[in-house]
Amino acid sequence: SGIPRKKAYLLKVIFIGDPNVGKTSLINQYTNKRFCNYYKSTVGADFMTKSIVIEDKVVTLQIWDTAGCERFHSLGTAFYRGADCCVLTFDVTNNVSFKKLDSWRDEFLIQANPQDPKKFPFVLLGNKIDEKEKRTVSTQRAELWCQKNSNMPYFEVSAKNNVNIEKAFYEIAKTALKNS
Ligand code: GDP
Ligand code: MG
User: pLDDT tens, 126-145?
Assistant: First the structure.
């Protein structure tokens, strides 16, 4: 009797992408509602948690940040192991960070070694859309890349101005839930 219980889920989400694209800022904006212009990069993997309600489920996201050791092969298997969703992040003012998405995706699949690599859920975030004059990667170019990658969901965000962050993380949580 009484109030129906919601089912609880603990899901692991990992953020990868080139240094400086804003991974730590996005996670900090979502979990703490804060933005800083400078972050000290700490060494080692680090995670934050935040719970969100999706229909009859309480989803606790365990969000792993690379904490300043983004070089390939330096993150270790503990970082990748058991991920339910991988968030690829680039900076819309930085072409190189966009071109590196293929290698980040491949690196993830090699390290995480999921059961069905073709079906593993990724979400793409294009950050720093507040920097309108400096923008070099168009929406169209990012959307085309997503089309070629199993229609990966794509969000244009700004950690600085808190644009689209809630929406993006809601999709990340739903995507992770599907895979759990
Ligand atoms: P990470 O290395 O990927 O974790 O990137 P950080 O979160 O440390 O951010 C790198 C730099 O970009 C910092 O100086 C941030 O203040 C800045 N930054 C992060 N997000 C944004 C954003 O949405 N807009 C702008 N203009 N700068 C941002
Ligand atoms: Mg960082």
Answer: 999 999 999 999 999 999 99
Q: Is 37 in the pocket of ligand 1 (CB under 6 A)?
A: yes
CA distances from 29 to 24, 25, 103 (A): 8, 6, 26
| Cβ-based neighbours of 68, under 8 Å, separated by 6 or more | 19, 41, 42, 43
Q: What is the C-alpha to C-alpha distance for residues 13 and 178, in angstroms, rounded to an integer?
A: 13
Ligand 2 centroid to Cα of residue 56, in Å, is: 33
Kindly tell me if the per-residue pLDDT of 119 is higher than 90. yes
ipTM of this predicted structure: 0.99
Pocket test for ligand 1, best of 25, 98, 158 (most atoms within 8 A of CB): 25
Does residue 25 line the site of ligand 1, with CB under 6 A? Answer: yes
Average pLDDT over residues 60-89: 81
| Other beta carbons within 10 Å of 122 | 21
